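Box 3.1 A note on notation
Throughout this textbook, protein chains are presented in two layers. The first layer is the amino acid sequence; the second is a token string describing backbone geometry. Keep the layers aligned when reading.
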Amino acid sequence: MNKLKKIGLTALGTTLVASSAFAGEISVSGDAGYTWSSESVGGASATPATGTATNDGIGYNHDISLSGSGELDNGWSVSTSMILVEDSSLSSSHVKLTMGGLGSLLVGNGQGGIGSNFDNAIPTAYEEAHDGEKDSAAIDNIGADHGNGGIDYTSPAIDLMGASVTLMAGYVPEASATAVGEGGVSTASALWASGQSFGATIAYGGFTVGGYTSEKKADAGTANGTDGDATDHTAYVKYTAGPVSIGYQEGYIEKSIKGAATAKATAKTVAAANGHFDIEAMGIAFNVNENFSISWQEVEETYDAQASNASGQVIADVVKESTSIQFAYTMGSMSIKGYQTDTDNPGWDSDAKSNEVTELAVNFAF
């Protein structure tokens, strides 16, 4: 009799466990290919013709994407993905909960936060223009410290008088941008505490308008590190008519870093420079046919030290300008793409040599 009771309880327990499971699937996809790249470095930006070629090379690329998804009993769904790149390292990963008409929550690593939807929204045939630069670009740093160890919310598309509106919000307890492991949290930043970000896009007809703002709180535990909170802002507008798409974007980054004023003829980075960066970008992309597209993009970024030198003279602004011409041709799962990007005053250094990068890539998707 006792044996029969044990068998019955075991069967009941198995049934309860099975009923809480949900159907799901795992899939693998990726791409692989070859690249050729050449860099030309000029003289002072006023005399780029004196340049010499450097850093030519042949390389390869591959991304392996693993993704899984499943549906809960209430109609919500859970999805996850991870991307492995050339050196077998993890490029990005996330877990996303989609709550039907309530929107979605995403926690991830290497995702770029909601700022990744706004860091360069100008249409292009291949890469964003700053991907061809050899230094850091201000436009690529929009929301850069909000991409790891936080939570991002995205609303469903909201119909508002014929327009489609999407709202986004993000929060990171530690705005350090450090990668997180399984069950882990971001490492504490030496300068920043928590961060929050907000974004919105509105699509109507051929127009898309987007705006983003973020703020990082200065860490009260640090002394003489910052002059206050750090902020990023950007807005863009795009218009598409048939095969043509044009876009314009402006942005502003204020890191509030303390320290001596950065000289005009000194290389700078967005993460460490005091002062602020003003961003202006524009571009146009044209689909020649269903297989071939071309684009042109220009990004102008102005560094303002907001300070004077030891002699009391106001440090002049430095303008870094990048121009990129790109193309892409697709034949089924195979694509041939390329760009040539020219940059004046790289690193916002008025004495830096001009830089030109050319890349050709042959890629295969599977």
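The mean pLDDT is 84. The CA atoms of residues 109 and 194 lie 17 Å apart.
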